[in-house]
Amino acid sequence: MKGILGGTGTSSKPQGSAISGPALNGLGAAIKRQVQPCYDLGALGGTDAMRIITVLRLRFNQDGSVNGTPEMIEQTGLTSDNRSYARQMAEISRRAVLRCAPLHLPAELYKGGWDEIDIGFIPAQMH
Amino acid sequence: MTKSKLTISLFAGLVALTACSSHQPKAASLPPAPATKAPAPNSNGDVDTGAVRDTVVLGSHADFLRQVGTDMVHFALNSHDLDSEAKAILDREIRWLKKYPSTRVTIEGHCDERGTREYNIALGEKRADAVRDYLVKAGVANSVNVISYGKERPLAMGSDEDAWAQNRRAVTVTPN
Amino acid sequence: MSSVIRKWAVTALMAVSSTALFAQNPAAGGNNAAPANQGDSRRILRVDITGGISQPMPIAIPVMPTPNSVTTLAGTTAVLGRQVASVISNDLKSSGLFSPSQQASLHNVSFPEVTAPQYGYWLSSGAQALVQGFVQANGDGTLTVGCYLYDVFASQEMLHKGFVVKPADWRRAAHRCADAVYTRLTGEGPYFDSRIVYISETGPKNHRLKRLAIMDQDGANHRFLTNGQSMVLTPRFAPNQQTVTYLSYVDNAPRIYVYTLGSGHVRSVVNKPNTTFAPRFSPDGKTIVFSMSVAGNADIYKVPVSGGQATRLTTSPGIDTAPSFSPDGSKIVFESDRSGSQQIYVMNADGSNQNRISFGSGRYATPVWSPRGDLIAFTKLGGGFHVGVMKTDGSGEQILTNGWQDEGPSWSPNGRVIAFFRTARNSGHTELWSVDLTGVNERHIPTPLDGSDPSWGPLLP
Asked: In total, how many domains does chain B have?
């Protein structure tokens, strides 16, 4: 893979590098704006669950709908006081994406941009 | 029979009413009531009560009220200390109790509503016990029982300083 | 934003990566979808959502169908299907964490549909979660209540359970279903299938009739246990729920007693000529800890429930009262005014190592240890009475209520909700209320007359 990246000529450009920094920033802001209103902590608001950070990996179809099942790739901030909320926090994160889908994002940034993204759900700032 | 019974109880009620109305419980901070308002006992402990006199059975609670002037003492907030006014009242109670040493006495301790239930039961007991202690140390031979009602039996119904002052009390109960 | 993440990373004590909480998603065919952590050929965009909203969750609980309507001792199974759904809805709503749809507005669920929900319909109804179920009469006279929970957005079943009950106990099946749903969606322990014993009050402020009474947590199945001839106060459930210990003024002598729920049998606990009060069971149900006044001085004692010798635990000249065991039975929290004002203290169960833990402004009373062990609920006095919680070392104080006089906290079985009583200024009317740990969700617990001194029992077996 490294060879490809460092290679020359006709080999396909590595995905991701096709999109400029500013475009990525704009894309990130658009996703955040669309998903945030659906991130409803419900019963877990104000509990020790607020310290749990969940990261989901999502694949999207070109129409903005979610492709397949969101996968949880990381969960941090677990303590003995909030371990019982871990599953619920993951589900709340998944629900946020499913509720707000389909996302409305620029088609030209799909491939290598938002066809697959990680979303980190951080319930609260530190107390 | 029925008629005479009714008359007596009516008179007794009148005495109790009189005693009550001339001795509204006062805030502990107020000075003692003027002597003229109280049926102050004379040197031999008798009181001229006029026409009602004959209806009061000696040694009864009505008699106690007539002789002592009141059956309760009051306390400062969160306190079970007897102040000089309370002690003056208890001194009159002692005089009466020593005349009727076989009369059984119950001291009820009460609190105002500004404490939690459990604490007030304990505080009411402390107040009743302070009165019992004073009576016993003065040498009364009567059987003296104490009971705390905490904040469960207020005398005044309101939620203000005046009502609270009236409710912080210990009551000496003698048989009718 | 990244600085926030870094701070979190520092405070995170444990990290779990890639757990199988969701159905594993085999990389969808794409051989070119390289994982992000495998080199730099594909850097996956990471977006952080910081700070969420917190609203009651929209949930639909439609009428539960019956395969065929049968008349039972508690009514027809068709009517029960409507009532069970209502009880579940009321339980979830009372927690303040759910917003159930109006039952009448929902479409009629057919029996086969119970296990195959019409997700499209429920999605358009705005519900995020869906509770379906059925009520079926069995040949042996019992009922089966089926209980299914679905995630509407994920089109996925979250749980299914069945409860077999006598028709008369249909409400318990509903509470059990509500508990299962609540636990699955919130991560908290259950509490709806439980009872409250309390003091029913009526009459003028200076002459209140006070009776021991018991009811379900939602106010149903209410009954009086004593007739009011003697004043009764501060009832506390035994852990096994078969008995209640309380203070009674029977024979004009305030003493603690144990009442047996099935038989109505009452017996005295401490055979002493002293006032005993503020009783509470130990977590194993074998000991009662209480206060006794000797020569006016209230100290804390403990005594075997079966009777016998009382052991003195405190010796301060002040008022020591309102003791409550920690859930492991090793410690006792209590209040004492030995410092000059009511404050909260913790000691070992044998009375050793007495330490004050409350240091805020004002006075503190009636401490009660949470069944989870993490918090102590109390009444704070000063500018009225308010119910609050603190950690067991006295830190993290939070005041949860704001009535004129809110007093006498008692924990729900899951340690998430606190029942207490609220007294009105002047009139002296009392009501039972509950509040959750956020302090936001306060609700009135309905009682036929006035109510005080709630004691929330453990989850029913």
From this structure: 1
